[in-house]
Amino acid sequence: MKVVVALGGNALRRKGEGMDYEVHYENARRTLENLLEGGFFSPNKKLVITHGNGPQVGMEFMRHFLTKERFPMYPLHALTASTQGWIGYILEAHLRALLRNKGIEREVATLLTMVRVSRDDPALRSPSKPIGDFMDRSEALELSILTGLPVKEDAGRGWRLVVGSPRPLEVINAPLINSLIEAGVVVVAVGGGGIPVDEKFSGVPAVIDKDRASALLGLEVRADVLYILTQIPFVYINYNTPKQKPLREVGIHELERLKEEGHFAPGSMLPKVEAAIDFIRGGGKKVVITSPEYLREAERGEVGTFVLP
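RE: above sequence
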């Protein structure tokens, strides 16, 4: 079975935590232990792990912005490459240690991944992808004036900077990723949605949604199942209201109807729902949306939202 596991932001940093390296390191260990306990490194699974970088690329952007008088600012696509590197290093180091301690003989590879987008994508003219930390409204407006980037409220959790998020069209490194997982290698790839490049492999100043890129990679390597890990155990309708209800098993037609009714917040669950629909429509067999700590229960079908054809 080929499986793509897309790690959400809480896999590296939980709500309210700082941006310290040690925070990322400890959370990555905990998340990967959940994958191990869920049986994701068993011999019958060919596995690729993807991850987000919204807070981290936002931190790198602010670091460059605040030191621009002394050092040149790097474009967003280069900062995505940078975060792919150090987040991938953390994940690979923990993976190697966990597998060795359990006596599991699997190689691990972290792959810097480029994803082709179109420079004509309308999303580049209408920024919507949140990056960086949450702020209150006054902080956000001040930062927007300083950086020239727009800000938006993110699913009621606070305000964040937003950048263009073009639709991923091709994972450039997908053939190599497929060769590696066919050989039994656990691959860490498509970090932060991948480095956005055009048809000439020139960087595009944007950030690709990680879940959309993970769904595309899943289709390109012909994965059977896509796991999208987030902060909550289920996808809910009427979320955070007295009528809140978990979705347990749902077909894509029903999911599309609920999406049109506005049940899923744009800065939160909506990209995950759209990625699930894309994966199933493209030929994938199943999408599981849940949180890392419930992976064992999800494997038994007890917890999680299961999206099916």
